């Protein structure tokens, strides 16, 4: 069995709905729409400049950088193609060309990212309409529209575009544009800019190979500095308090040159009950962030407020959700604005459990500070538990604060606790069949015991989710909880899945021919779940953890020779990979699961029966438990004790 359901990487973050510019697939030839204004033919193939970039594997970074940002020559009449890089899943940028006679500061002052909306007695902080619309809705914003023309006398700007769209924004340099160097910027990020040099018609544009070489050199240089800064910040730091507790510091985002690390650093902070944590966003000067609990999401908290349409002389009206482009929901798209929250919402001082609803804005951006946004916020954690805080703006950005511990469960209902994970109760009498699984809530303040006949028994904060009732008799072999702790998925030996509480049924293998009996189930919490058979075959249901809707399947051992049968599966923190563990302690990794060692060559006193993985992707680790209660840890997972020898003998079935 898996130790427990881990964590979904992509919370349902309400990214703004923007219309995409020219898709990359269509960018090579941008044909004018019927009736489009005439323009001069481009002088040769387009000059391509990258917008943002794909981060290294396992890193959640955004590049506030154009590739390359200097050394780009374009002749009069030439075409520039700005390409948003789909490898950056959290990027959000504009391309805004600054004309002669204007400065970057003047353009930014004219089109600020955040402003106070005080019209008609309102007092909201908003992202104003000009940011969303660009300078024209008739050029550069779809595959049939003509390029936007820059003649050096007026601002030309794209709308704000998410990099995940894979869009491209074409800009024609007018034949009349005066030769010289021109600056362009991103209106979202105050430090993101680049330069192009317009040369007389007939002179060549910078060679594509030269551009690629320079872009690669810039990318490598940025990464080198970012890795060094990440390593320096990824160290737990604390100070002692007068009452004996400690206050820890976690960086919420970090700006390193033109790279923004969308990471809590360190991601995992092991504390003691009663400690406090200061979430410090002062080190990020380009991005806004929040510290938001899952219960805060449920309460509607977070950075993004209402989308609305500006009304002159009256109250703003809600922007309806419609299909696009444009997807603004305003009759006049130029009136669309987005309300944002720069203050604390919900509980302000103390986080006691996964039910604590809170969200706080933190950032070192000068503009948000001027509007009342904080650079840091401190919470106290008076109870043992596991607390996951996320950024409501950036998918995959989270931190974990916990009092480390784990529990070992037996088939007779016994529970042994280690570290700070308390034994909250057990069902040791009146069982109608053996306990086969013991999943815990995300905050580790509750757990269930699940029996082979589908009964569930709840303890601590875990709610009563009911039983599966009548079924075909195939025994339950595993269970995993939903991310909010309000439901369970139970897996049967024949591949059937039963959804209890608020768990959503997403399919199963009922009636399918299996290579081996199902022995385990795990999930990233909400996007889907995965079944594993004793033969190593993996069956996946739902979407992957990256929120793209892509498959959860990352490979299996089905059809391959195994020295021992598979006994469990554990999803990675991102939901984009999983571990399989065999009875002999062999560990097999798929997707983004990191191998940290195994027991495959070790003589064991009893077979392995379960595995659990840690929550820190920068420092992977996992814990195995054997039937006799022996506990084995790898990577960053701490050893906190063993239940061996278990009583009755070899009765252990799970670790949570």
Which short descriptors sum up this protein?
single chain; 656 residues; mainly beta; Immunoglobulin-like; Methylamine Dehydrogenase, Chain H; 6-stranded mixed β-sheet; 5 helices; elongated; disordered N terminus
Concise overview:
The protein is mainly β and 656 residues long.
Walk me through the structure.
The protein has 656 residues and is mainly beta. It folds into three domains: 22-113 and 130-226, Immunoglobulin-like, CATH 2.60.40.420; 236-294 and 348-401, Immunoglobulin-like (Sandwich); 404-655, Methylamine Dehydrogenase, Chain H. It is 7% helix and 34% strand. The protein contains five helices and 48 strands. The strands form twelve sheets. Strands 1, 2, 4, 6, 11 and 14 form a six-stranded mixed beta sheet that branches. The longest helix has 26 residues, at 208-233. The N and C termini lie close together (10 Å).
Measured distance between first and last alpha carbons: 10 Å
Could you give the count of β-strands? Answer: 48
CATH architecture of the largest domain: 7 Propeller
- Individual helix count: 5
Give the helix level as a range of percent: under 10%
> Which regions have little confidence, pLDDT < 50, spanning 5+ residues?
1-42
Structural class: mainly beta
Per DSSP, what share of the residues sits in E-state strands of 2 or more residues?
25-35%
Sheet with most strands: 6 strands, mixed
Q: How would you describe the shape?
A: elongated
Rg estimate, integer Å = 27 Å
CATH topology of the largest domain: the name is: Methylamine Dehydrogenase, Chain H
CATH level-1 class of the largest domain:
Mainly Beta
Name the CATH superfamily assignment of the largest domain: YVTN repeat-like/Quinoprotein amine dehydrogenase
Whole-number tally of structural domains: 3
Average pLDDT taken over every residue:
90
């Amino acid at each position: 069995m898996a130790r427990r359901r881990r964590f979904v990487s992509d919370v349902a973050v309400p990214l703004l709905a923007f219309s995409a510019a020219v898709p990359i697939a269509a960018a090579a030839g941008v044909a004018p729409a019927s009736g489009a204004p005439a323009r001069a033919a481009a002088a040769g193939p387009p000059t391509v400049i990258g917008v943002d970039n794909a981060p290294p594997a396992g890193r959640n970074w955004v590049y506030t950088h154009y590739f390359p940002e200097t050394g780009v020559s374009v002749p009069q009449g030439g075409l520039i193609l700005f390409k948003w890089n789909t490898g950056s899943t959290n990027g959000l940028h504009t391309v805004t060309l600054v004309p002669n006679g204007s400065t970057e500061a003047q353009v930014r002052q004219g089109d600020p990212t955040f402003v106070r909306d005080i019209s008609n007695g309102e007092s909201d902080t908003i992202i104003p309409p000009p940011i969303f619309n660009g300078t024209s809705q008739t050029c550069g914003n779809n595959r049939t529209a003509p390029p936007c023309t820059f003649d050096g006398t007026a601002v030309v700007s794209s709308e704000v575009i998410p990099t995940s769209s894979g869009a491209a924004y074409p800009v024609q340099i007018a034949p009349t544009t005066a030769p010289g160097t021109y600056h362009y910027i991103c209106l979202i990020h105050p430090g993101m800019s680049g330069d192009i040099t317009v040369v007389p018609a007939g002179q060549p544009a910078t060679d594509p190979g030269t551009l690629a070489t320079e872009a690669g050199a810039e990318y490598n240089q940025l990464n080198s500095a970012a890795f060094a800064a990440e390593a320096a910040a990824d160290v737990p730091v604390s100070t002692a308090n007068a009452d004996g507790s400690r206050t820890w510091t976690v960086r919420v985002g970090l700006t390193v040159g033109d790279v923004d690390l969308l990471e809590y650093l360190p991601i995992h902070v092991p504390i003691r009950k009663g400690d406090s944590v200061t979430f410090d966003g002062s080190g990020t000067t380009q991005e806004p962030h929040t510290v938001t609990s899952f219960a805060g999401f449920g309460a509607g908290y977070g950075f993004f407020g209402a989308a609305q349409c500006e009304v002159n002389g009256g109250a703003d009206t809600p922007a309806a959700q419609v299909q696009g482009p444009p997807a603004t929901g305003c009759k006049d798209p130029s009136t669309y604005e987005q309300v944002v929250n720069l203050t604390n919402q919900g509980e302000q001082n103390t986080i006691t459990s996964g039910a604590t609803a809170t969200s706080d804005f933190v950032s070192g951006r000068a503009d948000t500070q001027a509007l009342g946004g904080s650079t840091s916020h401190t919470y106290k954690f008076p109870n043992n538990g596991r607390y996951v805080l996320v950024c409501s703006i950036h998918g995959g950005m989270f931190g974990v604060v916990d009092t480390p511990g784990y529990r070992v469960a037996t088939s007779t209902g016994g529970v042994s606790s280690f570290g700070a994970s308390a034994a909250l109760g057990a069902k040791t009498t009146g069982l109608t069949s053996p306990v086969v699984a013991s999943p815990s809530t995300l905050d580790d303040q509750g757990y269930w015991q699940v029996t082979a006949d589908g009964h569930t028994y709840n303890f601590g904060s875990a709610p009563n989710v009911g039983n599966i009732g009548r079924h075909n008799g195939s025994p339950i072999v595993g269970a995993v909880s939903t991310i909010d702790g309000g439901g369970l998925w139970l897996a049967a030996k024949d591949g059937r899945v039963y959804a209890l509480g608020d768990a959503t049924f997403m399919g199963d293998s009922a009636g399918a021919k299996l290579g081996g009996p199902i022995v385990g189930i795990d999930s990233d919490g909400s996007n889907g779940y995965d079944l594993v058979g004793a033969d190593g075959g993996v069956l996946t249901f739902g979407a992957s953890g990256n929120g793209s809707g892509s498959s959860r399947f990352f490979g299996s051992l089905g059809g391959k020779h195994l020295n021992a049968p598979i006994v469990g599966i554990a999803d990675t923190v991102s939901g984009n990979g999983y571990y399989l563990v065999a009875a002999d302690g062999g560990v097999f990794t798929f997707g983004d699961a990191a191998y940290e060692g195994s027991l495959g060559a070790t003589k064991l006193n009893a077979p392995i029966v379960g595995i659990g993985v840690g929550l820190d992707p920068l420092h992977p680790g996992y814990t195995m438990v054997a039937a006799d209660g022996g506990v084995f840890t790898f990577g960053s997972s701490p050893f906190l004790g063993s239940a061996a020898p278990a009583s009755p003998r070899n009765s252990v079935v799970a670790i949570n």
